[in-house]
Specification:
This protein is α+β, with helices and mostly antiparallel strands. It has helices at residues 5-62, 70-77, 107-111, 153-203, 216-265, 272-303, 316-325, 328-334, 352-369, 421-431, and strands spanning 80-85, 98-99, 116-120, 129-138, 141-151, 312-315, 337-342, 347-350, 375-383, 386-393, 435-441, 445-453. The chain has a 5-stranded mixed beta sheet. Strands 7-9-10-12-11 form a 5-stranded mixed beta sheet, with helices on one face. Helix 1 packs antiparallel against helix 4 (153-203) and helix 7 packs parallel to helix 9. 21% of the residues are buried.
Length: 457
């Protein structure tokens, strides 16, 4: 659960939101703390001014607080009331205001009609008070100073209110971010989970899986996964076809060899001429088997990068003549116009046997697809530091879209052969430091060109 993307993605998202929110809140508190305190102090003083003015006006209008007491007035205002001057409640014991400490406010300022703001700590109190002092008059006669005070802790209450609002906003932001993170997580993990299920199906050998579509990186991953599944299905089919083909290719010469060996061993073939013919067939079929096994081993070595390439001086003209001569009899028998054009005879440093194998594979492929009476040409040229050996035929050509497939192992057009010849030729060309080029069309046939670096001796 904790290692699941469904948990980790929203958790990381929320963690980022929380950290960002805390940092933002800390910065906001630091920036607005003094501002909030100043606003709260100004608001408190404004309230105190209104209350103090109201009390003095009330006293002046009623010529004394005849029906009121200090406690009632304090409960009405919600603040502490202090007084200094003549008795406001003559003859009324227990109704007087708390005495304003001497010296906390200058009487001359109050006598002048000014409203005085000040901070003081009453006797016995634990906190400072914000206070406003105003003059009390009867007519034009000054009789004392009345002060209305609030504990300075009210500023902290305003500050706490600001913090509460920030916390509420932060909690709301976390809830919205959580919902958004849950939505995004579902958008991301749903196709990933579908891909996981599809991978399980592919692991079971079911390559026809439903790959989810999408956009962005998830869509690219899904597309690549679909391509991988298609390639695996194709590889399995190629492997199955290869096994069937190799089995057939092995069984055919083995059957011929077994038949001739049994005939010779049982004495069925007594004529010397027939005996020589049987031995010739046995030798030819054994060579065929050896070639097939050698192709499979060569491909396995090339795939495992355990293929050794020799470095020797190779006369390319002589090598091309040797490859050409190996197919002259087949060309004569099938009436194929078979030509060889050698432009110079460069000598390069490479592995002659492997170059001959590549050319022979190309010629074998050309003769396979060239109809009787057709045309096959072998050409050798050298220029610009490269040596080129080209094989042309007038066969049916390579259909569009199959130019890359024909170089894959075990893939054979029409289902004939083992599908190893061109694959080995392509891998050998790369191992020799060269490459194979292909140009093909339905009208002109195919042209395979082996390009090798001309490392002259």
């Amino acid at each position: 659960m904790l290692r699941s993307l469904r948990f980790q993605l929203p958790a990381l998202f929320l963690l980022g939101v929380v950290v960002a929110g805390l940092v933002s809140a800390a910065i906001a508190l630091r920036l607005f703390r003094q501002y909030a305190q100043d606003r709260a102090r100004e608001q408190a003083y404004s309230e105190l001014v209104r209350e103090a003015n109201g009390l003095t006006q009330l006293y002046a209008d009623q010529a004394g607080f005849k029906l009121l007491s200090a406690k009632r007035l304090e409960r009405a205002t919600g603040d502490k009331i202090f007084y200094e001057g003549l008795d406001l409640f003559p003859g009324q014991k227990g109704k007087a205001f708390t005495a304003l400490p001497k010296g906390v406010v200058e009487e001359r300022l109050v006598r002048g009609g000014r409203t005085v703001r000040f901070v003081f700590r009453p006797p016995g109190a634990r906190h400072d008070y914000l206070a406003v002092a105003t003059p009390v008059r009867v007519g034009k006669t000054f009789i004392g100073t009345i002060a209305v005070a609030k504990p300075q802790t009210v500023l902290a209450q305003h500050w706490l209110a600001l913090i509460e609002r920030l916390l509420l906003a932060f909690a709301g932001g976390v809830l919205v971010a959580g919902a958004f993170a849950w939505y995004l997580t579902r958008r991301i993990t749903t196709p990933v989970l579908k891909l996981s299920h599809a991978a399980d199906e592919v692991a079971r050998g079911n390559y026809d899986v439903d790959v989810p579509s999408g956009s962005g990186e998830i869509g690219m991953l899904a597309d690549r996964f679909g391509e991988m599944a298609s390639r695996l299905a194709e590889a399995e089919e190629l492997e199955r076809n290869f096994l069937m083909t190799v089995t057939h290719e092995l069984r055919t010469p083995l059957t011929a060899i077994r038949g001739h060996v049994e005939a010779l061993r049982e004495g069925v073939v007594t004529d010397e001429e027939l005996r020589v013919a049987s031995l010739t067939v046995i030798a030819a079929e054994a060579t065929r088997l050896e070639r097939l096994v050698g192709d499979v081993l060569d491909l396995a070595k090339l795939d495992a990068h355990r293929f050794t390439v020799l470095q020797e001086e190779v006369d390319m003209g002589r090598l091309v003549d040797e490859a050409f001569a190996a197919f002259t009899e087949e060309a004569r028998r099938r009436g194929i116009d078979y030509r060889c054009d050698v432009d110079g005879k460069p000598v390069i440093v490479t592995d002659g046997d492997r170059v001959l194998q590549v050319i022979s594979n190309l010629l074998s492929n050309a003769f396979r697809w060239t109809p009787d009476g057709g045309r096959v040409a072998l050409e050798l040229t050298s220029s610009n530091g490269t040596v080129r050996v080209a094989v042309d035929d007038n066969g049916p050509g390579i259909p569009p879209g199959e130019e890359d497939r024909i170089f894959r192992p075990f893939w054979s057009r029409g289902g004939g052969g083992t599908g190893l010849g061109l694959a080995i030729a392509s891998e050998l060309a790369a191992a020799l430091g060269g490459r194979l080029r292909l140009a093909s069309s339905a009208e002109d046939g195919s042209r395979f060109e082996l390009v090798l670096p001309a490392r002259l001796s």
